[in-house]
Amino acid sequence: MPTSAAVARDVYDRIGDRIRELRAAQGMSQAELAERVGLTDEAVSRAERGVTLPTVRTLGSIARALGVGLAELAEGGAPAGSPPRTVASDELAEYASPELKRLRRLLPELEPRSLARLLDLALLLPRKRSPR
Hints:
By secondary structure, the chain is mostly helical. The protein contains 8 helices and no strands. Helix 1 (4-25) packs across helix 8 (112-124) and helix 2 crosses helix 3. The longest helix has 22 residues, at 4-25.
């Protein structure tokens, strides 16, 4: 069983790789992404290399700047090079449950290591099936 440090390292690396893929697919430099998000070039570089994991709020800003949702940023849900995806208002309705509202309030209070563990756990949980 991997250690929590190994799990965190894997999460940092996966998210960093995804940020780099999406940014490069759009022909955006690290400096351009940094400017759009309000970070330094070095902060974007550290995130892409998996050295640090940005806060949930910053990950949300990065995702918006790259035209994807947080789940797509974390999971690689959209192939690199595909057109940016926008979130329709009906998609946001699923985030109105009391449990998700409570989770959204708690996320900014988590330590980075705890956030990495939570993200890793969330990636392992079963997903709702899409209606066909």
